[in-house]
Predict the 3D structure of the following.
Amino acid sequence: MALTAKEVARLGELARIRLTDSELEQLAPQLDVILTAVARVSEVAATDVPPTSHAMALINVFREDVVQPSLSPQAVLAGAPSVEDGRFRVPRILGEEA
Amino acid sequence: MDFDDAMASFDPVLGLEVHVELNTATKMFCGCANQFGDVPNSNTCPVCLGLPGSLPVVNGKAIESAIRIGLALGCDIAGWCRFARKNYFYPDMTKDFQTSQYDEPIAFNGMVELEVDGEIFSIEIERAHMEEDAGKLVHAGGATGRIGDAEYSLVDYNRAGTPLIEIVTRPIRGTGAKAPAVAKAYVSYLRDLMRALGVSDVRMEQGSLRCDANVSLMPKGETELGLRTETKNVNSLRSIENALHYEIRRQAALLAAGGKVHQETRHWHEEGYTTAGRSKEEAEDYRYFPEPDLVPVAPSPEWVEQLRATLPEVPAVKRKRLQAAWDFTDQEFADIVNADALELIEATVAAGALPSSARKWWLTELARRANEAGLELAQLAITPGQVAALQELVDAGTLNDKLARQVIDGVLAGEGDPAAVVAGRGLAVVSDDGALAAAVDRAIQANPDVAAKIREGKVAAAGALIGAVMKEMRGQADAARVRELILARLG
């Protein structure tokens, strides 16, 4: 399955990573190698092996609904580049409505 | 185009997405308090801030609520399902993904039945899935506070990670001109159901119940769905009806003029119109994948059945039962429901008051005060038990209606139960004959003409004397006793 430069450009867009044409040419075959390697797993896995998303065969790991201490707002905002009114100040985002 | 003309040419098809914030003590994946209105960013931790290395753990209570909601909607409950990451970049979510469910919702294939103007509508539920709410953005710096001319945004992550259930209908057809009313009735039904389940505060004005309303139009006689719009920012039951009414007329005008509807998100304005938001022509790619930091949720059939046994009476059924038991007309009962007074009156009756008395207090005096204070009835600082106690004092002759209103003042001012207010303010009705008789005699002396009329048999004239006595006794006289005394003197 040859991954095209166009497909890599789309992935870059979705991940908000700006890629130059030469990077696209370079990355397409590299990502292709990874995809091919992963695809080989399907060859080994027979129908009796269900797809899994977790390394441990656990289910239903739940927490009690009991409040734990939160961080202080001062600590939370300490690393923010910009703060106003106890809130994170961020640039306006165009074209989207929260 | 007006609505009737639109309905003459087109059939609307609805799709409703309702988000319900659960009222668990803590958030979906961390132990931060799930609390509206706290100091910004005070209920946050490494998990809900998406700090590197933090790991989520599922709130078991939220799963329980999700299953109960699914069951109450007539859904099947998944024997095994997972969370998924919905990837997007927006500052309301620090992790750059929302933990949600994708193709494995916890509940699916449900149905609810609604009655609108005597007609029954079956609303099919496609799914109810679990996810987390995002942080809250305030757009600042512009003239209007709207994002379009905002210069920057301020983010509060207290809401980030709040447990949410998203309930999605299948396309709702066949409602015709009742489409806006059906949508309103559906959201109202969900609100009542969530409240009866006790799983959410369902306060639309606070965003704990939110509805996105999809609508498209089909030319009459056709069966292929038209392009739809999704209207957001619909924050009250009335707005749902108004927004759909507007959107149906707008789309009909476009289509009738040979134009086409753009598939897009639209924003409802309380002034009565929608504006275009994000275009949805290009399908969004959220790159969903199973959340590797959380293990699957697999509710056992035993657990599901245990939860099924906790389901409350369906609100619509309960209403029918209560209306019959209380013997109210459809209009009287509708007034109660519209005033959000059903539970309050039910509790007041349970505390010993007659339904008619309970209805009277909640829908007149207390409704007026709630309205004046800009509060909902349930937010008034008086309990159903206190209202029942007040009525008991009236029935016992300790209070008349006028004094009862002063007692309400006292209760609302935090002076304690009605009996305590009566004692504290010295408000009880005077029915002591000694005090009353003296006042009656003074009233007769001061109004000889009236007294003469009564002596001639014009009993109705007694009202003027009763009024004079009440005035002297500052409203605290037992009017019935005063009347007896007057007639005894002059009869």
